[in-house]
């Protein structure tokens, strides 16, 4: 039997423009960051999404014009008035994103410089070979230069050997460059496929969350109608599993559990819990599937 776990909270998700995902990871720690390039939403705001693990905690938030919104810490949504408690870690994350982008730009600039220098070196090598050929021709035309020609010929042979050795190295480096290019293209394809899978899974999660929210509203209505709780606000906790059901930490009778288990088997087939604390409501559910 395979067990699949679903865990989420009811979220309000704003429509945004998708960007290209960038990842940064430190091999000596558990830190890594996943964030999108800056994009614009329908109101013209600059939007970024950040998801990272640092110092043993998971952070997920959205930056709208540089301001933090939709902050989650270990999948728990944080109220805006509590953002200040996490400002130190958030500022570190934002600074790391900024440094990563600066370093990426430097790397691209350096690569461009290296390619330009390689082109210059090849052009100079060609000029040197042309000049060497001219020198040898002039040496042959001067009889008095016969000895010098022999000396020069020796030098030319040595240079030719060095040129051949360099040519071998150049071909080997070119092969390495081609192999790396193949790897880079393969990785880019893997990244694109993963992005498609991630978007598809996010859509599935949103649909499940909406289904569970509607079913939970119906269940609460039944609890009120059956007189188990006086109204929706008075329900602060509910659990349901194959072994029983509790409402506000009170164990329900077998008869009540049987009725609700039959009607709400989606919740009863796994381990389901509902919590209502002030303005924060959340559903946690895990269930087994064949």
Word description of this protein:
The chain has helices at 87-141, 146-225, 254-263, 265-268, and strands spanning 2-7, 21-25, 32-36, 39-40, 46-54, 57-64, 67-73, 76-77, 237-241, 244-247, 250-251, 270-277, 280-289. It has 290 residues and is an alpha+beta fold. The chain has three domains: 2-98; 130-204; 206-289, no CATH class. The strands form two sheets. Strands 2, 3, 4, 5, 6, 7 and 8 form a seven-stranded antiparallel sheet that branches. The chain has a six-stranded antiparallel sheet with strand order 1-13-12-9-10-11.
Structural class: alpha+beta
Query: Tell me about the biggest sheet?
Result: 7 strands, antiparallel
Q: Any idea what the shape is? A: elongated
Strand content: 25-35%
Key traits:
290 residues; alpha+beta; 6-stranded antiparallel β-sheet; 4 helices; disordered N terminus
Task: Offer a quick outline of the entry.
By secondary structure, the protein is of the alpha+beta class. Helix content is 51%, strand content 25%. The strands form two sheets. Strands 2, 3, 4, 5, 6, 7 and 8 form a seven-stranded antiparallel beta sheet that branches. Strands 1-13-12-9-10-11 form a six-stranded antiparallel beta sheet.
Fold topology:
Blueprint: E1 2-7, E2 21-25, E3 32-36, E4 39-40, E5 46-54, E6 57-64, E7 67-73, E8 76-77, H1 87-141, H2 146-225, E9 237-241, E10 244-247, E11 250-251, H3 254-263, H4 265-268, E12 270-277, E13 280-289
Antiparallel strand pairs: 1-13, 2-3, 3-5, 4-5, 5-6, 6-7, 7-8, 9-10, 9-12, 10-11, 12-13
Helix pairs in contact: 1-2
């Amino acid at each position: 039997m395979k067990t699949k776990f679903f865990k989420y909270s009811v979220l309000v998700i704003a429509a945004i423009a998708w960007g290209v995902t960038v990842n940064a990871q430190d091999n000596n720690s558990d830190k890594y960051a996943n964030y999108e390039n800056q994009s614009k939403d329908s109101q013209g705001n600059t939007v970024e999404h950040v998801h990272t693990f640092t110092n043993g905690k998971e952070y997920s938030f959205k930056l709208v014009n540089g301001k933090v919104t939709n902050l989650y810490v270990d999948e728990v949504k944080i109220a805006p008035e509590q953002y200040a408690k996490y400002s130190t870690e958030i500022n570190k994350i934002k600074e790391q994103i900024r440094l990563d982008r600066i370093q990426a730009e430097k790397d691209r600039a350096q690569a461009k410089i290296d390619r330009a220098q390689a082109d210059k070196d090849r052009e100079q090598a060609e000029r040197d070979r042309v000049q060497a050929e001219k020198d040898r021709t002039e040496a042959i035309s001067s009889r008095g230069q016969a000895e010098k020609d022999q000396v020069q010929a020796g030098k030319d042979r040595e240079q030719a050997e060095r040129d051949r050795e360099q040519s071998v190295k150049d071909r080997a480096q070119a092969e390495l460059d081609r192999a790396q290019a193949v790897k880079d293209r393969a990785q880019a394809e893997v990244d694109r496929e993963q992005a498609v899978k991630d978007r598809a899974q996010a859509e599935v999660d949103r649909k499940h969350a909406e289904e569970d929210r509607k079913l939970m509203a119906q269940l609460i209505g039944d609890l009120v109608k059956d007189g188990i709780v006086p109204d929706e606000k008075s329900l602060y906790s509910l659990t349901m599993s194959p072994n029983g059901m509790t409402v506000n930490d009170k164990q329900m009778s077998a008869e009540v559990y049987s009725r609700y288990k039959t009607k709400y088997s989606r919740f009863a087939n796994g381990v389901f819990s509902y919590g209502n604390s002030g303005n924060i409501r959340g559903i946690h559910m895990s269930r087994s599937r064949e």
